[in-house]
Known about the structure:
Blueprint: E1 2-3, E2 39-44, H1 47-57, E3 61-69, H2 72-78, E4 101-108, E5 114-119, H3 138-141, E6 156-159, H4 163-175, E7 197-202, E8 208-213, H5 237-240, E9 250-251, H6 253-259
Parallel strand pairs: 2-5, 6-8
Antiparallel strand pairs: 1-9, 3-4, 4-5, 7-8
Amino acid sequence: MVAMSTQQGGSSDTDELPRHRRILQESGPASGRILGINHLVMFARDMNEGVRFYRDVLGMRVVRTQRFATTAKGLRSSAHHSSGSAAQDQAETSPIAVDITVRQVFFEMGNGELFSLYEAPTVTERPPAPVSSVLWPAASKAQWSRPVEPQKLDHLSFDVASHAEVVWFREHLMSQGVPVSEVSERKGANNQHRFISSIYFSDPSGNPLEISSFDAGDAAWQSYDFSDWFIDEEPVSALLDGASDQAPSLVPHWVRAKTE
């Protein structure tokens, strides 16, 4: 991110902003070094269903397939791990280790990032619902169980280029018989807030999914005050410690890319 100028929507007087909107957004030598998500992995009950959904319905490209036992030996022999913990059989003595065989397929998205599925025989037939399940259509909710506790992954949202693409995907999913929500906006009570527009659905294994867009080509982003995104009026102290009273909000990379 880069700092906003006043013309690009940065507040002309950050002292006038409430404290919770003056956030320390970047810190440390790693700032900017993470370029994106290399890959994500989710479980599928049936890989045939998964491939036909992610390749044929969502349009992702299959780029890698493998099947391996989840032991160090299995990772070496079938998943080609050649260094790290998998190179040592001692890793298998861990009390949390599991010994199952999984099939894995990697899919490439349009920006080159990867998404992957594991097929395993013990995947639950009714995974826990996301915490904001009200956003999903009724048919998705019927696939889920009530969560006993929050999951380490709640749901996954895929990015598309524009609001029009969100609308296109909603119509496309409906034409494929996939239950999908209405388009969800986040404009707030005064219709001035800006964030993403989304649709909600699930894959054949019940994994909760979303397709979203910032609609980055919309010129209104060039004059938007991104401190408006800091809504939590009681943020954790790590977000406030060391934050400058004078620092303007930073422009997201996807806005900067449109202006360069």
